[in-house]
């Protein structure tokens, strides 16, 4: 029997913990606040940011939403970030990516106050994570770790192959899984577009994490019997549906689930956990900024 991880249900458990933490803060006169910033009209980004704001509302977090015109300058965006850095009612800030081509993403991430960096993308937080002293784990990798723990997958001594080397997922997840920690201790291989004989590597892996941004790229014949498969991809492919597209992961779910012992679906897998861990980081940021010792979800 293949265990299909229910990311929505697991995320709901984290959201409940966030609500409890919010109550603890409220008792001390503090309301945790998260600012979401979006620049431009990318439809997928609009969807994700709306979902994040809805999550805030449900959990009692003060959601501050800022839209910056897609034609505005990089300086306008940096001014927005500077204003949010200065606000006492905002404890976490995220700037939704991708940003328009004329904006240097790195400069924008560098401008976020590291103590409010709810995505964990600021170089200070990246450095802490690599040193094994993570302050804010990036949301998707942290969500993947939670999913593995929930499915009773002990990564100690396991061979993990991550397909994809992005700064948001592949690199931080590799770092976290190789660290000397209860949810680490794995031997990690990071594969990418120049990797030779990818199939030999995925076939030899106990755990395969697909984060390449390529629809249904990882198929059952690339996996060993009993592999654990985590699908990070969320791709919109044209389809004859009401929305004009359907969501598919980087894994071909049908063939992969014939081989996998544990698998995460798309939608309803890593996506909701990414949003849940964003609120986790907001709670952590609020603790750090206020000194209120609320329980971490
Ligand atoms: N600043 C950031 N930008 C981006 C991040 C990030 O962590 N920080 N990650 C991705 C997108 N992402 C978060 O922003 C994200 C993607 C998908 C979901 C999600 O809940 N997906 C649902 C389906 C949603 C739908 O109907 O389209 C699911 O998988 O079930 C949450 C967050 C890139 N940018």
UniProtKB/TrEMBL annotation:
GO terms for biological process: L-histidine biosynthetic process; methionine biosynthetic process; purine nucleotide biosynthetic process; tetrahydrofolate interconversion. Residues 138-288 form the Tetrahydrofolate dehydrogenase/cyclohydrolase NAD(P)-binding domain. Its EC number is 1.5.1.5, 3.5.4.9. Keywords: Amino-acid biosynthesis, Histidine biosynthesis, Hydrolase, Methionine biosynthesis, Multifunctional enzyme, NADP, One-carbon metabolism, Oxidoreductase, Purine biosynthesis. It catalyses: (6R)-5,10-methylene-5,6,7,8-tetrahydrofolate + NADP(+) = (6R)-5,10-methenyltetrahydrofolate + NADPH; (6R)-5,10-methenyltetrahydrofolate + H2O = (6R)-10-formyltetrahydrofolate + H(+). NADP(+) binds at residues 164-166, 234. InterPro entries: Aminoacid_DH-like_N_sf, NAD(P)-bd_dom_sf, THF_DH/CycHdrlase, THF_DH/CycHdrlase_cat_dom, THF_DH/CycHdrlase_NAD-bd_dom. One of its GO terms (molecular function) is methylenetetrahydrofolate dehydrogenase (NADP+) activity. The keyword Transmembrane does not apply. Residues 5-119 form the Tetrahydrofolate dehydrogenase/cyclohydrolase catalytic domain. Homodimer. Catalyzes the oxidation of 5,10-methylenetetrahydrofolate to 5,10-methenyltetrahydrofolate and then the hydrolysis of 5,10-methenyltetrahydrofolate to 10-formyltetrahydrofolate. This is Bifunctional protein FolD. It comes from Halorubellus litoreus. The lineage of its organism: Archaea, Methanobacteriati, Methanobacteriota, Stenosarchaea group, Halobacteria. The gene is folD.
């Amino acid at each position: 029997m293949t265990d299909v991880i229910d990311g929505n249900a697991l995320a709901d458990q984290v959201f409940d913990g966030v609500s409890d933490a919010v109550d603890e803060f409220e008792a001390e006169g503090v309301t945790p606040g998260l600012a979401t910033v979006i620049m431009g009209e990318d439809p997928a980004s609009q969807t994700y940011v709306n979902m994040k704001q809805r999550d805030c509302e449900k959990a009692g977090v003060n959601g501050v939403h800022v839209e910056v015109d897609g034609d505005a300058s990089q300086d306008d965006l940096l001014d927005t970030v500077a204003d949010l850095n200065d606000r006492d009612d905002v404890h976490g800030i995220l700037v939704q990516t991708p940003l328009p081509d004329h904006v240097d993403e790195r400069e924008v991430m560098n401008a976020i106050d590291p103590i409010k960096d709810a995505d964990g993308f600021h170089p200070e937080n990246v450095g802490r994570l690599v040193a094994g002293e993570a302050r804010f784990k990036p949301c998707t990798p942290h969500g993947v770790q939670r999913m593995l723990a929930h499915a009773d997958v002990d990564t100690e001594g396991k061979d993990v192959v991550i397909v994809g080397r992005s700064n948001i997922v592949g690199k931080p997840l590799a770092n976290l899984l190789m660290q000397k920690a209860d949810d680490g201790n794995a031997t990690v291989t990071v594969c990418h577009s120049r990797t030779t004989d990818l199939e030999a590597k995925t076939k030899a892996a106990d755990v395969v994490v697909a984060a390449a941004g390529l629809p249904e790229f990882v198929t059952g014949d690339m996996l060993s019997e009993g592999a654990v498969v985590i699908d990070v991809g969320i791709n919109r492919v044209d389809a004859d549906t009401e929305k004009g597209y359907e969501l598919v992961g980087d894994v071909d779910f049908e063939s992969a689930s014939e081989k996998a012992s544990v698998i995460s679906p798309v939608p309803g897998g890593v996506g909701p956990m990414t949003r849940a861990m964003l609120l986790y980081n907001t709670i952590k940021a609020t603790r750090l900024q206020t000194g209120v010792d609320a329980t971490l979800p």
